[in-house]
Amino acid sequence: MEKKGEGKFKRISWDEALKEISNRIKEIIREHGPQAILHYEYAGHCGLLNYYFPLRFFNVIDASGIKHTICDSAGEEAISLHYGLHYGSFPEDILKAKMIVLWGINSAWANLHGYTLALKAKRIGAKIYVIDPC
């Protein structure tokens, strides 16, 4: 198996890729147990099916999990430290906004649900401003 960073990757078919991944998962479970596999993702890029369907697989193999995501937990902690609690607004509240600022986020890619709501808000009169450091 090639090591990361060696630059020796080669193009393989989807079937070969799935077999490689399957074999590696089986090897990790055999050598270290299922808890050595961590299911990590974030819902910003997923629809409901893409978000929940992989959970079925990771539950079946008894993989490790985390409390939603690392960045979500860090954000909640930061808000708690500043404001004393970490309650946010409901995503649908964006429809009541008159101005939406997307600061440092490619919402169409990283927050599809929020992006869709922002576009709905724009159609009913909200102004959208994007601050993009890239």
List the helices and strands and how they pair.
Elements: H1 14-32, H2 48-60, H3 70-83, E1 99-103, H4 107-110, H5 112-123, E2 127-131
Parallel strand pairs: 1-2
Fold and architecture overview:
This protein has two domains: 13-88, no CATH class; 89-134, no CATH class. The chain is built from five helices and two strands; from the N terminus they run H-H-H-E-H-H-E. The model has no long low-confidence stretch (mean pLDDT 84). The protein has a two-stranded parallel sheet with strand order 1-2. Helix content is 46%, strand content 7%. The protein has helices at residues 14-32, 48-60, 70-83, 107-110, 112-123, and strands at 99-103, 127-131.
Rg measurement, Å: 20 Å
Outline the low-pLDDT stretches.
none
Compute the number of helices: 5
* Strand order across the largest sheet: 1-2
Could you say how many structural domains there are in total?
2
**How many E-type strands?**
2
Give the overall average pLDDT: 84
- What is the N-to-C order of secondary-structure elements (H for helix, E for strand)? HHHEHHE
Q: Roughly how many Å apart are the termini?
A: 36 Å
Secondary-structure content class = mainly alpha
Proportion of residues in extended strands:
5-15%
Largest sheet: 2 strands, parallel
The general outline is elongated
- As a percent range, the share of helical residues equals 40-55%
